[in-house]
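Obj: model holo form, ligand = guanosine-5'-diphosphate.
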Amino acid sequence: MSAIVAIVGRPNVGKSTFFNRLIQRREAIVDAVSGVTRDRHYGKSDWNGREFTVIDTGGYVLGSDDVFEKEIDKQVELAIGEADAVIFMVDVETGVTGMDEDVAKLLRRVDKPVFLAVNKVDNPQRLQDAVEFYSLGLGEYYPISSINGSGSGELLDELVKVL
Ligand code: GDP
Ligand code: MG
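Output (holo structure tokens):
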């Protein structure tokens, strides 16, 4: 069975863009199970010959912020439950948000490898800005740009080592 990698994080950080990059030219599998898993997408990927399944967690934008945050927590918990490793994505354009801190709190308690991916690092200035994500207490991070692909090789090299 192929290892499972979940991409989690608040909306708009670039999870789906990265997911699509990982599963390039492959067909995304939309989970047929209705209910709680309906907005998670699964796809096959591989790096240096190591195959794995990627989960792109969605999350609906619901009415209140409260419900919205609960939905994200639920998605994160479900994804973590079945994943062998987690990519926690944040966004350097916005910087650290309260929602990032909430997800980080959940992840610090998880006994699985967590890779903090600081996305939208499209240029050197943003590489400097990324240091603020140390404050999430998750240690080292991987600066990446899901749009131009930079940094993703370094992240994937480390990721497949734990699968
Ligand atoms: P998700 O909600 O986390 O799945 O985020 P999406 O993948 O839908 O991306 C949200 C927005 O961020 C879109 O407008 C993307 O084009 C943009 N985006 C994603 N990755 C990058 C990146 O590496 N750099 C920049 N500048 N924008 C990005
Ligand atoms: Mg998405």
